[in-house]
Amino acid sequence: MWRQIDLRKSKRKQKLIQRTQSKLEQATSRQVDQHTTDPLPEPRSGSHSNSRAS
Asked: What φ, ψ does residue 21 adopt, rounded to 5°?
C-alpha cells in the first residue's frame, strides 16, 4: 500500500521535474532570442530568477 503511494508520488515528481526543465529550456531560449534583439535584457533576467525560485 505505502509502496504504491510512493510510486505515485515519484511519478508526479518526475512529471513536475520534466515540466520545470522544459519551462527552463523555453525561458533560456527566449532569453537568447532577446539577447540577439534586445540590448538591455536586465529586467527579464530578474523576473526569470524569481520564477525559478517559486
From this structure: -65, -45
Q: Count CB neighbours of 24 within 10 A.
A: 13
Q: What are 53's three cell numbers?
A: 525560485
Grid coordinates in use for 11?
A: 511519478
The pLDDT tens digits along the chain (54 residues) read 567 778 888 888 999 999 998 988 888 877 766 656 666 556 555 555 555 544
Identity of residue 50: N
Instruction: Answer yes or no: are the C-beta atoms of 48 and 27 closer than 8 Å.
Output: yes
